[in-house]
Write a structure and sequence with these properties.
224 residues, alpha+beta, Immunoglobulin-like, 8-stranded mixed beta sheet, 4-stranded antiparallel beta sheet, 4 helices, DNA-binding
Length: 224
DNA sequence: TCTCACACCTTTGAAGTGG
DNA sequence: CCACTTCAAAGGTGTGAGA
């Protein structure tokens, strides 16, 4: 199956994108659609690092309509959403020329760690690609997905039955900008508020980061 | 723009504990 | 045995300064 990628809009009204896609009796639900929609409305950004960075949000699906006894491999690929490179300018993303060529030889896919499994196994639990890591290191040997910073990408879920043809599912709201430093402050705030690993940066109640810093400074001052 | 050391946090899994 | 708790190590965060 081929896909037409949506045109770039920067932000879009909520509810534009389906949380459910169906192809040949197979239905895929983007389970964390609400979080993706929040990020997408600010244009999602994903950090690239040399050693590899997890995505947040990550792709989390619920599948139905698979043949229970059949074996399937589930794979996530991340492909360019368009041919441009971008810059963050005046609080907006704007195209700034033709992007880097997407090296097919270098492009990588991420096979879910339960692959292959029976259809029944895939359908009884959520399928989360939280282990997937993104890197800008062209010489990466860890098998991470290699992307170019300041380019726009879209994840695709591939459902591959043992011998039949591959089914590909694309949720436009999972599109993101690859960056090495967050450009949009609103994205940083969304990450901090939603990702458990970033809890240390939340400003809540009397235990805020600012208060802790002040306390620490006071401590050092009193000790010295 | 990119990289790194860092404080701060969650997650993981082994070891301990009681029924 | 099993279920639950405790604990320390491993490892995921954005930061902020320097390149």
């Amino acid at each position: 199956p081929s896909f037409v990628f949506p045109t770039f809009q920067g932000s879009s009204p909520e509810g534009d994108f389906p949380a459910v896609l169906t192809h040949k009796d197979v239905t895929v639900t983007l389970e964390n659609n609400n979080v993706w929609k929040q990020f997408h409305s600010c244009t999602t950004e994903m950090i690239l690092t040399k050693q590899g960075r997890r995505m947040f949000p990550y792709c989390r699906y619920r599948l139905s309509g698979l043949e229970p006894m059949r074996m399937y491999t589930l794979v996530l690929s991340i492909v360019p959403a368009d041919q441009y490179k971008y810059r963050w300018s005046n609080s907006k993303w704007e195209p700034t020329g033709i992007g880097e060529h997407h090296d097919q030889g270098l492009s990588r896919v991420f096979s879910h760690h339960y692959s292959p499994s029976q259809g029944s196994a895939w359908m009884t639990s959520l399928v989360s690609f939280y282990k997937l890591k993104l890197t800008n290191n062209m010489s990466d040997e860890e098998g991470h997905i290699i992307l170019h910073s300041m380019h726009r990408y879209i994840p695709r879920l591939h459902v591959i039955p043992a011998v039949d043809e591959c089914m590909t599912f694309v949720f436009p709201q999972t599109e993101f900008m690859a960056v090495t430093t967050y450009q949009n402050f609103r994205i940083t705030q969304l990450k901090i508020n939603h990702n458990p690993f970033a809890k240390g940066f939340r400003e809540e109640g009397s235990c805020s980061r600012l208060n802790r810093i002040i306390t620490k400074v006071r401590h050092v001052t009193e000790a010295g």
